[in-house]
Amino acid sequence: MTREAGFGFRDGVLHAERVSLATIAEAVGTPTYVYSAGALRAAARRFREALSPIPRKSLAFAVKANPSLAVLSLLRGEGFGADIVSGGELTAALQAGMAAGDIVYSGVGKTPAELAQALHAGVGHINLESEREGEVLAAMATRIGLTATALLRVNPDVDAGTHAKITTGKSDSKFGVAFAQALDIYDRLAGRAGIAMQGIAVHIGSQIIDPAPMEAAYRKIAQLVALLRARGHPITHVDLGGGLGVDYRGGADGDVLAYGAMVARVTRDWDVTLMFEPGRYIAAHAGVLLTRVLWVKPGSDCPFVVVDAGMNDLARPALYDAWHEFTAVAPTGKTIRAHVVGPVCESSDRFARACLIDRVAEGDLAVLRDVGAYGASMASCYNSRALVAEIMVDGDRHAVTAPRIAAAAIRTQSVPAWLEAAPLHHAA
What we know:
- The chain is an alpha/beta fold.
- The chain has 13 helices and 21 strands.
- It folds into two domains: 7-35 and 284-410, Beta Barrel (Lyase, Ornithine Decarboxylase, Chain A, domain 1), CATH 2.40.37.10; 37-282, Alanine racemase (TIM Barrel), CATH 3.20.20.
- 28% of the residues lie in helices and 25% in strands.
- Helix 8 (212-230) links the parallel strand 11 (195-201) and strand 12 (237-239).
- It is globular, with a radius of gyration of 24 Å.
- Substrate binds at residues 280, 316, 320, 346, 374.
- Its EC number is 4.1.1.20.
- Pyridoxal 5'-phosphate binds at residues 243, 277-280, 374.
């Protein structure tokens, strides 16, 4: 799979489906995230169809990739539940109309308050990251007269072969319990009142193109499932996580058909409901970050194209040296080798280094592509910049799904009375 057809040129101008990005910029301003509903639907359906050989399954979109209520609502309509990692994501999933029973609560740092929130909401499964978390959950559920359904997340010590900062399944990972300790921990948790252990969860990382590491992890989980059943545990669910990657340079993504065939082959005799948590694969290609060129500034080796989108709006290049193609909204066919940078007061606020890009001038519109996942979800108000706006396009319709919010409006602040009343001191 390559980029979705959600974004393309019409009469020389880049469109989201049938809406000109120039029209959106005029109406909403920049920087703005723009999502294609059609691209989201196509990716969601392709993922589901690739898993058609698997008889019992559930799909939960990884909300951390894109918590937009519009995105979540659209995916609910495509039969997806939610994989969440915080109480805020639980609230978002419920507000988007997702059934609580279709929500899986993952994450290594759930607070007691968040566990209580999940219990009262009736989430489908809680993925336990430690024995202590299971003990607290069981005691809490017993006190309020409920039973929590849970899986134990196991660290299979498999290298996903991806960026170190998004690898989650090696032996030194903070996620899950060690494979060697999993049997005994599961035994003890299964014996507690207030908790119904139903199986195992595994997730080795994100942005995985080669499915071989996933297969290695799943085969280790197969051994664990067999050993647990030999001890008398009824294993009904296995969460295989997400992680299937995309090619940000316009090439081939992770082969979802090959992935589905591999899962069907490896799990053929498991007799469980398999759970999947795709995020990036569903959303990445479905979004662009619309930006405007502020300045074209001479440099020692090549010019700096300074745009109004910054690392606070799109953090991935600063965090991971991630690549996002820079494309003019109305290209002339001419190119230039340039640095593309944002306005944030950090040297890491850079989207491209000495790259061949469309020639642009002051005031021109451009986009950073493939930002539908881990784009707006990681945005901040650093440098007291406004929180970026978000738009969804569906055919010839578009709507603001998240308005631009001034930094001062995000969090109410105050000055202590003793500072307000303090006299001014001037240096002599």
